[in-house]
Every structure is written in C-alpha cells, then in structure tokens.
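**Paired protein data**
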Amino acid sequence: MQLVPLVELTRGGTLENRHLGAIAVVNTQGAVLAHAGDPHWLSFSRSTLKALQALPFMQAGGPEHFGFSSQQVAMLCASHNGEDMHVAQAQGMLEKAGLSYKALKCGCHVPGIFTQQERQPPPGFVIDERHNNCSGKHAGFLAYCVQHGLGQDDYIAPQHPLQQAIRRDVARAVGLTPEDFRLGIDGCSAPNYAMPLAHLARGYARLASGARDSEFGESFSALSEAMTEHPELVSGTGRNDLALMQAGRGDWVSKIGADGVQVVGSKSRGEAFALKIIDANKPALFAATVEVLEQLGWMDDAQRAALEPWRAQDIKNARGLLVGQRQAVFRLQGAKV
C-alpha cells in the first residue's frame, strides 16, 4: 500500500479510528534509510517549506544587509502563535526594511495563542497581519524585494522574481528540478509545492547538516542554528515544534506543516524524516512523530519522558475518565536500532 496505518484509536477495546500515512527517513544524499508506506508519497510541504523558502534571502546576504538578529532569522521559518514576542519580531523586521505591516499580503486570522488554547481574544484586541502565523516569512519576502529593488505589490505571485528564485533554490535543496514541483497556494497566499516525502526530508537533512553542506552551508547553518536557539519563535507556547526542539537539545530541527505534515532533521546524524498523516489529525501526527524518533533510536530516557505527553496514549473524557487508547501501529522498514 502507498499509505499504511500509522496510529489507531480504540474505545472499550474496539477499534474506532485508524490514521493512515507515510514516512520517509533519508540522509543528505537522498538515500531512503527507512520508511513506512510509500516514502515517495507526493505531499504538499505546507509550512515545512519555510526554512527552504528563506534560501534566496539568506544566499543574498539579506540578514546582514538589514541587520536581522538570530531571532529574526528564526522568524523567517516560523508558524508562530501571534504572541507579543512574535509580533514584536515581525515589526522589527519590517522596520529594518523600511516597511509598514500593511505591506504584508499574508492576510489576518485569529492568533494561534487563542485558537490553540480554544479561547477568545480579550475585548478590544486588534488583529492585523503581524499576528498571522506566516508574518515572519512574509517580512523576509518583502525585505528581499527591498534589497533587490523588486515590486512589492505582487511579491507572492508565482511569476514574481522572488518566487521564481525560491522555486529554483528549493528544488536544488531537495534534489529536484523546478518543473518537478506541483504548484499550490498556501493559506498565507504564497506559492507552495508538493513533492515526494523523501525529497522534503532530504531538504531537512541538508538544513540540519548546516555548514557541512557544500552548496548552502552558510545559509543552512544560520537557519538551523536560529531555529534550535529560538524554538519559541518558530512556534510558540504549547506547540509541538517548541517541545521537540527543546527535547532535542540543539540537535533536532523540527517543523510542522498544516494538514498533517511534520519534518525533523538531526544535525549530528545528517538525517531527517518527513511524515504525512493523510487525514491531518494532529494528535495522531504528534504520536507518530514521537514513535519515529523512538524507532530510529534518537531518544534517550530524558527525551522520552519529555515527549511522553505528545504520544497522548490515554484518551480521557471531560470528567477525566480513561475511555480509550491511542497507539502507533507501524514499524519502520529498514530502520537500524
């Protein structure tokens, strides 16, 4: 099968839900080291693409040109909660580029700090584009346009020189040609690309390898270091990428994407895995991600304990009664543990 059962839920001992997906574990050369289901399953990269979308800006010396801090480099890769710390960094990026937040074309939505915790913004809370989880990425897009004298009104159009440069560099990073990609439009209105999971994972293996990469080494080093040094900016309070990168102690470069995508790279190993849950169920995605780390032998006891809540093995109801179980049911083929 192209997709296989990754996580199952039982209630009273009876199967209730089954979440299908695929996993690819690769090295920097793109060799598939382990897999579950089809490692070449075609999937939109969604927000896992952000660190790679920053490549043209990084390669052109954009952070140095504008004086971006390491925190602001992390924001290029962020799917953030729209907390005060995120808004402040996005605003700082825009100010350094001489721009207003009104130049952002990512749109507005209720910040994740409220939706993640299922609560409403306080009365009088004003939401603008800086609260959008992609505002850091878009601020970087605009800074690139300022640096290169490009039009800003259409910077998210697929034919814009910036987006063409992104498509070129992303293809180089993942080992494809620009023509190999399937084009889609992401939630923030920017172009997004579908690619085989193994190629997405290869991009993160190279990102995690940092300065060892012969093509993008300086850029990958700056991006991966910023992400692991400031995981709270890449995600935010209560988020899985924050938990994973904190547990990884600087080694794991983690990025979630909408609709059931997760990628994690290991700096020390020069390896990464990409995972897709086809029904986009987040608890299943989190549980499967921790199980991959387990089966690959990437975790010690302290890391295992820190990430135990993300397995969410016990299902409890509103009264706290244990009513079911969530279990990973896959075995990685080819994993050497």
Summary: The chain has a mean pLDDT of 96. DSSP finds 14 helices and eleven strands in the chain.
